[in-house]
Amino acid sequence: MQKTFVNLMRGDPAPRFEAATASNPRYIFDTVAGRYVVLCFFVSGGTPGAAAALEAVAANRPRFDDERLCFFGVTVDPADRDDGRIQQSLPGVRYFRDFDGSVSRSYGAIPREAAAGEPVNARHFWVLLDGTLRVLDVVPFKPGGSDCAELFARLDALPPPHLHAGQPLQA
Q1: Given a cut of 80, is residue 2 above it in pLDDT?
Q2: Which residues contact 82 (CB under 8 A, 6 or more apart)?
Q3: Euclidean distance between CA atoms 97 and 82, whole angstroms
Q4: % of the chain beyond a pLDDT of 90
Q5: What are the CB-based long-range contacts (under 8 Å, 24+) for 99-102?
Q6: Are 105 and 111 in contact (CB under 8 A)?
Q7: Can you list the alpha helix ranges (DSSP code H) found in 48-122?
Q8: Rounded mean pLDDT of 92-116?
Q9: Is 91 exposed, middle or buried (0-12, 13-18, 19+ CB in 10 A)?
């Protein structure tokens, strides 16, 4: 059976979900609206591409202040938690423990048909959301980490969150 993936496009609403973080077993994702959000679907911090992405986040840590911008890494690998490869750093940096794969499936990082714990060919990428939790950009991981430079250049070009649509928005 051929595996299929969700493909998010610019302007799509971000799929809603609840998932565990280090400080909240039922973090409701919708609560982050009002600022830019970077989601990183790295699947497992034990892979070279994930390690490069997480290093880029650490190198740019001051950007993630929970006012203008926040970061959420998404892992399906319990070893990331158990081996300390991921560490929440408030404000601004959190990790979803997506051990059942539900978040990763809804965003297209793993196939729709993937069962929890099943080895799969995963897709690794960044998703940039605006303050209304709509997709601004999807940046796939690239060899050599050029995706990190592309993402952070995109972040540099963003207006203040309340002007993301080119004019102030009403609630």
Answers
A1: no
A2: none
A3: 11
A4: 78
A5: 101/76, 102/17, 102/19
A6: yes
A7: 48-59, 78-82, 102-107
A8: 91
A9: exposed
For residue 117, which phi and psi values (nearest 5 degrees)? 80, -5
3-state DSSP assignment of residue 94: strand
d(CA 55, CA 32): 23
- For the question of whether the overall pTM of this predicted structure is more than 0.85, the answer is yes
DSSP 29: G
Helix (H, G, I), strand (E, B) or coil at 36: strand
Contact of 62 with 155, CB cutoff 8 Å: no
Provide the phi-psi class of 118: left if phi over 0, else alpha when psi is between -120 and 50, else beta: beta
How many Å apart are CA 63 and CA 57, to the nearest integer? Answer: 9
Rounded to whole angstroms, the Cα distance separating 151 from 137 reads 9
Q: Could you read off the pLDDT of 29-81 as tens digits, one per residue?
A: 999 999 999 999 999 998 888 999 999 999 999 999 999 999 999 999 999 99
What is the percent of the chain with per-residue pLDDT over 70, rounded to a whole number? 91
Note if the bond before 78 is cis, omega within 30 degrees: no
